[in-house]
């Protein structure tokens, strides 16, 4: 798929708008590309928009528990109807976002220990499944038709420029 200059300009405006909202909301808590752990909820509220496709991924076998907990702590009156794309539903928080109304749609690969709870949320109409993918299909579709607007990635290390190191196996 070829990107037109209008597509690129729209993406650039969208990114600039999100960054401006983050800077305004965080003020002195924003130091370059770094925020304190206490300010993560404020950051997420500023950058997430209703209907956004959001990728939540850990580093290797980690499940991004801090980021999942931060999502659950958001106000559903401000952040809602997110479309989550993630490989594994391993933590209760991965489904808590649907119970709280923060997210409404899900594309994933594996539910593991959350499978029974997932089925109950679907039956209750609290969660709409886009598709259940293989890992490779899901990751490939991130670049085709499931491209996230926001990616929440747990990393082993990061620098002040925003570069992430997710470990030797990833």
From TrEMBL:
<keyword id="KW-0808">Transferase</keyword>
<dbReference type="InterPro" id="IPR037171">
    <property type="entry name" value="NagB/RpiA_transferase-like"/>
</dbReference>
<dbReference type="InterPro" id="IPR005777">
    <property type="entry name" value="MadA"/>
</dbReference>
<dbReference type="Pfam" id="PF16957">
    <property type="entry name" value="Mal_decarbox_Al"/>
</dbReference>
<protein>
    <submittedName>
        <fullName>Acetyl-S-ACP:malonate ACP transferase</fullName>
    </submittedName>
</protein>
<dbReference type="GO" id="GO:0016740">
    <property type="term" value="F:transferase activity"/>
</dbReference>
């Amino acid at each position: 798929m070829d990107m037109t200059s209008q597509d690129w300009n729209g993406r650039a405006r969208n990114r600039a708008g999100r960054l401006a909202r983050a800077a305004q909301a965080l003020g002195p808590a924003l130091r370059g590309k770094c925020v304190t752990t206490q300010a993560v909820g404020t950051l997420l509220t500023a950058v997430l928009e209703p209907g956004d496709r959001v990728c939540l991924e850990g580093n290797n076998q980690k499940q991004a528990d801090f980021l999942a907990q931060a999502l659950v702590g958001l106000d559903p009156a401000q952040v809602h109807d997110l479309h989550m794309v993630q490989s594994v539903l391993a933590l209760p928080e991965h489904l808590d976002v649907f119970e709280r109304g923060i997210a409404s749609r899900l594309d994933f690969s594996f539910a593991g220990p959350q499978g029974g709870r997932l089925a109950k949320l679907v039956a209750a109409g609290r969660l709409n499944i886009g598709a259940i993918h293989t890992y490779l299909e899901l990751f490939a579709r991130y670049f085709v038709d499931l491209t996230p607007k926001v990616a929440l990635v747990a990393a082993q290390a990061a620098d002040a420029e925003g570069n992430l190191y997710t470990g030797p196996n990833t």
